[in-house]
Amino acid sequence: MDTESTYSGYSYYSGRSRGSHRHGERSRDRDRHKSRNKDSRSEKSVTINSPPAEPLLGDSSVRGGEQVQDDNWGETTTAVTGTSEHSLSQEDIVRITKDLEDSVGLDCRRYFTLTLAVVMGLLVFLTPVAFLVLPHLLWPEKLQSCGTACEGLFISVAFKLLILLLAVWALFFRSPRAGLPRVFVFRALLAVLVLLFVMSYWLFYGVRILDTQDDNYQGIVQYAVSLVDALLFIHYLAIVLLELRQLQPCFSVCVMRSTDGEKRHYNLGQLSIQRAALAVLEHYYCDFPVHNPALLSASKSRAAKHLAGLKVYNVDGEFPAALAEGPGNNAAAGMAHSQSRAMIAAAARRRDTSHNELYYEDAEHERRVRKRKARLVVAVEEAFTHIKRMQEEEQKKTPVDVMDSREAAQAIFPSMARALQKYLRTTKQQHCHSMESIQQHLAFCITNNMTPKAFLESYLSAGPTLQYSRSHWLARQWTLISDASVTSGLSDGCVFQLKCVDFSLVVTTKKIPYIQMSEEYIDPKSHKFVLRLQSETSV
Amino acid sequence: MSNFIPGQPLVAVVQRIEIKKLRQGDNLILGFSIGGGIDQDPGQNPFSDDKADKGIYVTRITPGGPAETADLRMGDKIMQVNGYDMTMMTHDQARKRLTKKNEDVVRLLVTRKSLEEAVKNSMGGYQRQ
């Protein structure tokens, strides 16, 4: 059935609609990683608008725009205004207030599932030990003494438990990458399987060994060993289900950004839709050039001009059933089919020269960018010639004023600052780079002996989102919009959307076709050639 | 020049041409150039109808030379030289046959498309009668 599951800010945190199993994805069947870095990328559940970008050569006294590394963001942050490129809409305000209410509830739920997982892990781990120790505590006099083979089994149990502990640490003790909307099905299944398994073992133990006070200690030890063996096999099953199954690529997904049409293709294995969305997002941050809303303003203004050109008035006095508007109203918002057709026809007849303007504007812009770039390159190259790396011996010989890389960067920065600022303004990137970040990058390049061209590369073209400062990893909160249930697997032709505040990523899936390969043997001696001549002789 | 079937006798309308060699310095020349041969690439022959035809063709006639006076034309296929068959010859063998130093005169049998058409037209006229 068509279920649209939206994972948006408030519904994720509301405890009403979803049960505690919702966070079962976090319940692992072993111990969990206890110290979780709350500042990690996935943990930030609300990202409010970016702080105002520092103007390049503006007053450096205004440095308070840095994003507060906040652990108590729920109490302190409300809204950030200023020169940011986002405007705070009514929707955002509602969402923020709801987040503030629900944040406390969320933390409790997360810690609840964490403790649940820890308790279950401890229970499972201590079960074999309990099986071995309980007979000694309850009926020590009746118990047969442990022979050699039996004591050998003790070593086996100890080492298998150690291996199990290491394996669980390797597989599950990892900080969570993200919070997914629905429970991670395989993990929940594995947790249930382990619980059932351990319960059945306890049941058997309780009935057949504790009640009858069995005195064959070797049999009990073998029983505990079989439990540990089975736990290792369940761990193997966990590896296969959680890690190995999705490695072989099965689907090719095409990810397209809605604002500027940037498209990438990735190969994914058999994953559920939410895990596929997570994989896509991780690739997004590395591959897609950063979203720059300033580049979209031109097309928006053109669109606005087209709309503003013609207005359609309904002067015939009819009241179409769909529109409850009287005559003389501007029907541009809810146009009937005939009216839109009339509008298109009129627009076609009108002499529209906007394509001309666009062409010349583009040529002019191209020229301007190239001119600024030439000036910038010259300025940077000249600035770099002022700096020379000083060798150790020279330093002892001539005691001149030496600087470290940061001071060197600050020394040469003013000579190129103006050209760089003008270039960034022309290419509409000035909000991505603050003066502080540019100086840091310059110091970095100087330390690592980079050429001026290497320094400039990060400003000449837009890089992936990860390259910019943390404030630019804007949307760490994403909404997954899908027709099919998000825990169902990817299928051919499945389409889902990942929405954030500014734009959305549309993901389409295609199945990788079955490839039938056949073999052909060519004898290396069979490569023979002739000359194709056409000579002409005069006789 | 009509389509030949390998292994079957070839039927063609030929013309007898007798060329007297001209002495130029130390050489006896005939005044034309040949192309083709069984060791050559027949697909590049501009004069043949059938691009698999590996026969010897006249590719150029020197103006005013003995070949021109003898009414040899460009595009002719040489079928026989002095009685020797030229349809299955390598290029070099053909050249040697034509440039034998002890022969003053070469008698060629050549075929061309216009000959076939002329015969067809005359025969057709005869049949209509």
From TrEMBL, chain A:
Annotated localization: Cell membrane
Annotated segments matching region Disordered: 1-72
Database matches in InterPro entries: VANGL (IPR009539)
UniProt protein name: Vang-like protein
Membrane topology: Multi-pass membrane protein
Annotated Low complexity bias: 1-17
Keywords linked to the UniProt accession: Cell membrane, Membrane, Transmembrane, Transmembrane helix
Top-rank taxon, per record: Eukaryota
GO cellular component: plasma membrane
Membrane-spanning ranges: 111-133, 153-172, 184-205, 220-242
PANTHER family according to UniProt: VANG-LIKE PROTEIN
Family the entry assigns: Belongs to the Vang family.
Pfam families given in the database record: Strabismus (PF06638)
Biased composition (Basic and acidic residues): 26-44
Signal peptide positions on this chain: none
Automatic annotation (TrEMBL), chain B:
SMART domains in the record: PDZ
Gene Ontology molecular function, alphabetical: protein kinase binding
Membrane topology: Peripheral membrane protein
Domain PDZ: 16-113
Domain of life the protein comes from: Eukaryota
Keyword annotations from UniProtKB, A to Z: Acetylation, Cell membrane, Cytoplasm, Membrane, Nucleus, Phosphoprotein, Wnt signaling pathway
GO annotation, biological process: cell-cell adhesion; establishment or maintenance of epithelial cell apical/basal polarity; neurotransmitter receptor transport postsynaptic membrane to endosome; neurotransmitter receptor transport, endosome to postsynaptic membrane; receptor clustering; regulation of signal transduction; Wnt signaling pathway
Main location: membrane
GO cellular component, as recorded: adherens junction; basolateral plasma membrane; cytoplasm; nucleus; postsynaptic density; postsynaptic membrane
UniProt-annotated location(s): Cell membrane; Cytoplasm; Nucleus
Protein name per the record: Tax1-binding protein 3
Taxonomic path: Eukaryota, Metazoa, Chordata, Craniata, Vertebrata
